[in-house]
Amino acid sequence: MSQAIAAFIWRWRRVLTTIIVIGAVAFVPSANITKIDNDLTAWFSVKDPIYKDYARFRDEFGGTRTLIIAIEAPTRDRLLSADGLQLVEALTADIEKVNTVQRVSSLATATVIDALPATPGDDGGLDVRRLFKDLGRKTPAEVGARALGDELLRGDLISEDGTTAAIIVFFDEAKIDTVRPQVLAEIEGIVSRRTPTEFKAHLNGSLEITEAYNRVTLDNQRVFTPPIFLVTMLAIYLLFRSWKKTLLTLVAVLISVLWSLGLYSLLGFSYNVLSSMLVPLIVVLAIADDVHILQHFDHERRHGSKEAAFRSTVANLFAPLLGASGTTALGMLSLCTTNIVAVQQFGIGSAIGIMVDFALSIVLVPTMLGWLDEVTAEAPQETWFSAPMRWIGRFSSRNPWRVMAVATVITAIAGFGLTKLHVDTNHINFFAKSHPLSTSAAVIDTKLAGIYNFQVLLEGPPDAIKQPDTLKRMDQLSRELERLPYVRKVSSVVDYVKRVDRELGVGGAAGAARVAQVSDDPSVIAQELFVFGLADEGRVELERVTASDFSKAQISVKLASMSSDLVFEQIRVAERRANEIFAGSLVTPTVTGSGRLFSTLDHYLVVSQISSFATAFVTVFAVIFIIFRSWRFGLLAIIPNLFPVLAVFGVMGWANISLNVATIMLASVALGVVDDDTIHFISRFRRDTAGGMNSQDAIEEATASEGRASLTTALINSTAFAVLAFSEYKPTAWFGALLGLTMAVAFLAEIFILPATIMLLPGLFGADAVHAKRRARVKVGSA
Amino acid sequence: MSRLLIVFLTLFLKAEPGIAIQQEVGTLPAGSPQAQGEWVARHSDQRDTGRDGRVTFKMKLFDRQDRARERALTVLSKKAPSGDKSLTRFTYPADIAGTAFLVWEHPGADAERFLYLPSLARVRRIAGSEAQESFVGSDFTYEDIGGRAFDDYTYTLVNDTADNGASYTLESRARNAGARFPRVISTIRKDTFVVTHADIYGKRGDIQKVFDATRVERVGKYWTVTSMRMQDVGQKTRTELTVEKAEYDVGLTDDAFTRRELEKVIK
Known about the structure:
The structure holds two protein chains of two kinds. Chain A has 27 helices and ten strands. By secondary structure, chain A is α+β, with helices and mostly antiparallel strands. Among the domains of chain A are: 1-30 and 243-374, Up-down Bundle (Multidrug efflux transporter AcrB transmembrane fold); 452-559, no CATH class. In chain A, α9 (243-266) packs antiparallel against α10 and α23 (665-690) runs parallel beside α25. The relative contact order of chain A is 0.12. The model of chain A is unreliable at 507-512 (pLDDT under 50). Chain B starts with a helix and ends with a helix. Chain B is an alpha+beta fold. Chain B has six helices and 13 strands. Chain B is globular and about 55 Å long. β4 of chain A pairs parallel with β6 of chain B, so a sheet runs across the interface.
């Protein structure tokens, strides 16, 4: 079969190569990644119940994905000066004019409610107005003091110490994602133009974080791709000492990348922070494939013609390369079991890319090697690595117990490290402490109400919300939510009802101390809300917190930035308490908002990655069983594959690197890389033992040839991806460093643990067992 | 310029000077578009609205989900040199029925506003509202209903060919650069000077609100917009205001606009 395929490819190599090259050229425009889409629908299925809850909430109250601008003054007096308040007012006014901005919440738009003193003929009155309306008749310091004295504003729109003011920008979420970079750039321009040097402006919020992700994704592509290619080129040159082969490998890798990205685009998939891993993945696997082909071709060329070398290379490597690529592709395809759109797309895209790379490499690389006329002398990697690898093969096969003892110790240490591994996706901590996102989060989290938020959506029949019973339950829930750790501000319509009640003096007799409370009388509440909504400011505030027919309301909860798992935990507590408090009432609570979306997304990602890794593991080994048509060698493949994954996660545990949306991908990538090496090694071992070699010789041979290829691949890829360790975005840096580590450990597992296991279980995996099996087959055949 | 009072008066464009207006239709002075615009605006602004009036409204407020809330209110109003007065009383829905406002305008000074909440059975004073702010929680502003303070705007006649030549198109620009709605393009009937349509622009320069007079009737001597709609394009809400009953020159005296009357009304 393999011989027939080799003959077919040899015959049609020129046509096939032409098609491959034309295809790659055609895919150049679609592979040019300039637009990154980290939007909600790139991650969430619109059918997801969590997304549906959010969509329902957004339809009623608008989006909660905001931009937060903290204006930090050197002193309280500077912020509460005419200049300081004018700055807040001017920024608010300018930002309100920006396209897609729906609403700006700041001291300049803040509503205050005050009692008016009693006069002859009336019992006092009520003043619902914009805070800054007072600037005409009061000093800025007095206006500032009024804001600081208001518990609805203090800690939210102005810091407790009076040095920092918040400007919170809400957008039309139906439009913002299509123009987000331009809109945010325009606002950043306004802020930098308007803000004097003595004031500092800090930008954050979910939209800014999303945009930072997009910038990082694009920057990583732009900044790291050239050095990765350069380092790869140098590494290949160093190991093969041939510019032609170096260029040939790079051309082959480039063509695989173009095809993969082109097909990814053709499928209509969008690029996001996750799919940016596609290029590194394809490069790693393509180089692994190409090095095997290069090495085999060189070896064969020394003893025969180009055609013989071509046919032998394809015939001998077709099955192991197909097996290696197929298993990796299946592993990636298992990501489709998740319900996250971006992960599904990455799974499908990478699976297709891997298989396309296999198909291209097996045709293109031997064909291009056939064009080279250079003498295929021993390459440095052959000169340098052959003897040491042979020695290692001998050592592993002669000292299996020692090898296994060391492996066991490493496994134990890694296992202990594994217990330290924690799941934690803190998007702010992914950036360096000096990154603007981190510095702004520090200011907003400590001085203002924090950059994260979630909402409790309350739904019932019309007028349900303004019933005393509902408002009292809301009040109870709000007070409980305020006591949750990390929660910095809770607000709802209850705050306004209580405030109006207090300022109208409903709760107490004239002259008595005013008490903010929810009345027991529904008509009092209806009239308080009516009065509050008569003024424009009150009306706008009411629309923000309750539906016009009082069938829905929201409790807004603001919190400091933290691990999404902690947010997720807080949300679960909020949900449980909301359900308990509203049990038996007219109203149904649902916890939603951007905090819920993003924490759920991160939770989904990590959980689904763990489950899909398990699926991948089972699937990959099922395929290995089929490829080798042997359960024993399928079983053998598991050991060196589990070890690197265990070791890398152990190192992460010890190094305090969390299992997060970025590092979790390592498991799948590691599995993809490691199982390739194993398949090549076992294939070679079986081929040689079947040809009459004993176990020890076959191990030496497999280690010297396939182990050498693995070492060459590991060196090239580790060196190249070590470049990623310089990324300002920690997950990328972790990914680069840990990928190198994975490849190193995988290589060591292949050359030490695999041979040791074979030697320790000769009855299962040894040459005699292979011979016995072969003899049994021959017997059955002749009978 | 008075606010609340004008709300209910200028909407009901009068017919008494209609003869004069009819006579002046043909006398649109030659001149710059600005001079012509000012002429049209002044005629619209100076229409006689009667001495007093008693009008019953039905107000329907539609939110962005198109859910409607209904309110019913009765407005008594009276013009006087010492300041216009009005008393607005809500009669529907039940939980706010009896809630009433009393407004005393004072030329050149802030108006006095009083609120009566039946659940409290007390009169409360409330702080005043700006012309471009919501009228009793609806999509109309006081200015939309009461008319724009003439001197707060500059005017340009855009054309006199709207509605097949039956209306003027007038552009009004706020003198105050910080105005919430700095520009309005209105369609004004040549025969009655009724504003039948207006595009109201926001700070960004795009249309924020759209006004339509959906029915204009002659009530007694006065042309009255008896049905109108204001859409807030940005917020995707709208308010429909329908006149159920309108009476003019009914002989209301200052006694109808006292604080005692504010409470007495619902007792």
